[in-house]
Amino acid sequence: MVGVIGRRQFLRLAAAACPLAILPRSAAASALVEVPASLEGPSLDIPDLGGKLHRLADYRGKVTVVAFWAAWCPPCRAEIPSLARLSRQLPAERFAILAVNLGDTSERIGRFLDQIDDDGLSVLTDLASSLASAWHIRGLPVSYVLDPAGQVRYAVMGSLEWDSPAIRDQLLKLGAS
User: Fold this and answer.
1) Please, what CATH class does the domain formed by 34-176 belong to?
2) What is the domain partition of the chain in residue ranges?
3) Where are the alpha helices (DSSP H) in the chain?
């Protein structure tokens, strides 16, 4: 059974699970860090660039990566192409990769995406950054991996090379269980 916990407890668990929280933002993560307690993913009711609304419930049954980023953030900009490559490498029927932009206009996001390879990546927009509080975002980039039941299993604070063999293998294992 999953309990509901408060913001402070969530932050303590996330910090304990992810020692990268104390590293400078420019430091790159090298692995997914397991969250020590079962936490249900907070709500996610935001549109993609085409206006289609996305909810976490839409992704039940899939391993879902929710990666928060902004166009002004250099580590975020470096990470987005690896998320797109990962999205193309994993079977869509079992995995979803959601790149949630916090605070940028659709025009700014579009200008950035025009400069990179983002094929296959679902880019969602949160212009008001309203999800930052619900997901306890204290810096960018920050990502969470949810299991098929919608439980947060891994957290990453800092940028990550998402399509590296080690990360892909961790995700495939989670998708197989």
Assistant:
1) alpha beta
2) 34-176
3) 7-17, 74-89, 106-113, 131-134, 165-176
